Amino acid sequence: MNITDECWLSLHPCYVMHDVQFRIDGPVVACMQDVFVEDWKFTTGESLNDERWFPKLEVRGTMLARGVSSGPDEDHEKLRLVLLGALSSARTRVVIVTPYFLPDPDLVSALNIAALRGVQVDILLPREGDLRLVHWAAAAQLAQVLEYGCRAWHIPGPVMHTKLMLVDGIWTLLGSANWDARSLRLNFEFNIECYDRTLAGALECRLETLIAQAERMTLTKLQRRPFLIKLRDGMARLLMPYL
Questions:
Q1: Which of 37, 38, 60, 232 is the least crowded, having the fewest Cβ atoms under 10 Å away?
Q2: 158-214 confidence digits (pLDDT tens)
Q3: CA 80, 27, 169, 191 torsion: positive or negative?
Q4: Long-range contacts for 112-116 (Cβ within 8 Å, ≥24 apart)?
Q5: What average pLDDT does this structure show over 18-24?
Q6: Residue of higher predicted confidence among 23 and 157
Q7: How far is CA 194 from the centre of its chain?
Q8: DSSP E strands: which ranges in the chain?
């Protein structure tokens, strides 16, 4: 769960956040426990070694799942390699949901190569972002994937803070990471990859509903933006390594 003041409508936030949350049971929880224990020790200096912190994890269902931790430590580049591997393996469709879309050149190339192979690549972004500089920079970045056949959609309503990736209706990546330099290189993130057609199918149906309400962004629309807007977005993109 990722809950902030922006999720509470009664507080009348400037930007209302919408997210998709998951409950996770079974052995994959051990991956989350390991990350939590390591982070807890780093933050507090306390080692959680007692058995009460590690209840027995029973098998739940038949879904295959694996935790993917990443950060500027021994896990550096791990998540990025997972994304590149998933894009290179895609055969029919890739759906990406992220509030912050600032992929590096390698990921841009992987997205474009997938589209050129005939894979339908859909990128779902919020119409309005809560971080203005990031939102402007993403607008300047978008043309790089649109010109090779990827499709981008602006979702109306509350800021969609969900981070999801679906591949070929069977592989799902969910968690905390965004498609930007901070998540892929600087931040400590945790994601879970799942192999299950039922989960991927349910999420894809949900995302199709959002796409039906969304505005498709095209190169023509981007090029028709006023000059000052394009200049602003281009200048924001120069800050991409820090956003």
A1: 60
A2: 888 899 999 999 999 999 999 988 888 888 899 999 999 999 999 999 999 999 999
A3: negative
A4: 112/144, 112/145, 112/148, 112/149, 112/150, 113/87, 113/88, 114/87, 114/88, 114/90, 115/145, 115/148, 115/149, 115/150, 116/148, 116/149
A5: 87
A6: 23
A7: 14
A8: 17-18, 64-70, 93-97, 120-126, 151-155, 159-160, 164-167, 171-175, 189-195, 215-217
Eight-class DSSP state of 169: T
Tell me which DSSP letter residue 5 carries: G
pLDDT of residue 242 exceeding 70, the answer is no
Name residue 66's beta-bridge partners: 193
243: pLDDT strictly greater than 70:
no
What order of strands is seen across the sheet that includes strand 215-217?
64-70, 189-195, 171-175, 164-167, 93-97, 120-126, 151-155, 215-217
What pLDDT, on the 0 to 100 scale, is given for residue 1? 63
pLDDT in tens, 47-105: 998 888 888 899 988 899 999 998 887 777 889 999 999 999 999 999 999 999 999 99
Output DSSP code: residue 15.
S
Helices vs. strands in the chain: H and E counts, helices first: 8, 10
Category of 125 on φ-ψ map: left (φ > 0), alpha (ψ -120 to 50) or beta: beta
d(CA 232, CA 110): 27
